[in-house]
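Support case: user asked for a sample of complex input and structure output to validate their parser. Sending the pair below.
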Amino acid sequence: MADPRPVALDAFGGDKAPEAIIEGAALARDQGVPVLLVGDAEKLKGRVPKGVEVVHAPGIVGMDEPASAPLRKKTDASIRRIFELVNEGVAQAAVTCGHSGAAMASALHVLGPLPGIDRAPLATVVPRRDGGQLVLLDLGANVDCKPMHFAQFAVLGESYARAILGIEHPRVGLLANGEERGKGNTQVRAAFPEIEALGLAFVGNVEPLGALRGECDVLVCDGFVGNVMLKTVEGTVEVVGAILREELRRRYDGLLGRWLMQGAFRRFRQRTTYDSVGGAILLGVNGVAVVGHGRADARAVASAVRYARNCASAGLVATVRARAQERLDTGESEAAAIVGAPFRGRPNG
Amino acid sequence: MADPRPVALDAFGGDKAPEAIIEGAALARDQGVPVLLVGDAEKLKGRVPKGVEVVHAPGIVGMDEPASAPLRKKTDASIRRIFELVNEGVAQAAVTCGHSGAAMASALHVLGPLPGIDRAPLATVVPRRDGGQLVLLDLGANVDCKPMHFAQFAVLGESYARAILGIEHPRVGLLANGEERGKGNTQVRAAFPEIEALGLAFVGNVEPLGALRGECDVLVCDGFVGNVMLKTVEGTVEVVGAILREELRRRYDGLLGRWLMQGAFRRFRQRTTYDSVGGAILLGVNGVAVVGHGRADARAVASAVRYARNCASAGLVATVRARAQERLDTGESEAAAIVGAPFRGRPNG
């Protein structure tokens, strides 16, 4: 039976908040996903769609504030409250399109890390040339990583591919500038044996071109490099689209080419950017936490909400937890020591 | 007056060597660029196009050999001999599609670094959405970089943009995962003030999406990250092309869409991969050194030869040398100390 609990949605995160968020909540509701709008009830008054409940949380974390703001000065922030609702069992998952650093810090602090996890990476799915899907992580949450963090990302990404993409033995690759063992920078060379020792279906170093062609299902890298790769995919799609449109305009005098391309472009954009899932998922925390695009519109917000619900329904957190306990060293984690939030026994997803 | 000297071309570098190289030499000759084919004369016998001369250099460096092979065991390698021909004043530029590490080591050893330069980066040009061109460097020659290396790359890339793209005041960006100062990993944060101190038109941190939209003319990064970015561009073009073709096939039952797309695809591929220039250029050495695609076909080889000739004609090396002397600390360089090849006074380009 489907979990009847709502998805907690941060009403004050994102470039187009709260308008696009409110509209997105209505869309999600229409699509059969119950939503809790979390934010300043005073500001939301008179604008809340019918059938959508509001949870009051007046604090708003601006994009220029430190990631730690909701942990210290703004403990009443909506970006923190959504995770508390998951932790309290009120919501089945949390979604924000706000400050991704603040989202990560709040999720880690409130939900706590899963056993064996020190860093919570952001992951998304990129379409491959062979029609398959590539899980890419980390996307920016952790820019400087130690070898053990790469290993943790490998376990998290692999579990995601099993739970959400239904791949039985996901092939895990380490992002590098060449396929031979020994390629990569200092961090990558040090991470290689750590991932190898996990006993996953590790295919070794994989280049971006190879990964996008289908040589692996999960691609592991640090947050700096992953962010560069994801944003390069997005940028290239834009450049290619602009060049194609220009070429077609030049050759076919506009109308015909444009008419032909319109639908195709819309569809490939849906597949080639992470708009299709509405955002990235924060893995390694004890609950489902989705971080949407900052520039998400109502459709993307609804999509992120559906995505969060689907991850919860698929038992993502339970799958990840089991795999982490099986493959990682589950002593007192660095993250738990830092945020003062030891692993909680009660599963949230 | 055009330099009448030939371009030295490594006949035994690349996946399709020597056939594609020989054919490429003939193409370049037809296009008015004189070529010297460098390699084992015995193996080339009876296959050399009319009007193309051969310089005997029997050693071949395989892709599995160390980059230092032409410096130690194989000093007679064709990948080394091409740079000697430039250094001797016989050739105006050198081109290889072989082992890029061996090409870099040979060029640095034989031609020597320019004053103030410790690391020779590979650079290429990527088309931007606004119709402009983005100089991207380093592309893989140097995976672990110190702050001063980033600064050297900035000066080299800026000089390239002035000499080859004709931009008077190229805007230089530092590749990062966010635009705010303080973003980036440890290396990037340390490189920022070093680049800032050069007095170039430095626009600070730039994200891949911003760079591809036109926020800067030169994008500086270490060789690991640059390689990931370049290969992600190539991979994304493939994925987008595959998805578009599939969508068009599905919607228009093949023929019409395919016919319309064919020319446009060919043209955007020419603009969106570095096939258009036939390869990357090694900057910071005392001569023009072009490293072509390993998988270059005859057309790409000819394109790399033309590109090398154009860089020499434009006085690239002289422009770079002047800028390096003006902006960098030109004491005894690390590279000169390592390869035992002090800066030579005689300009090669």
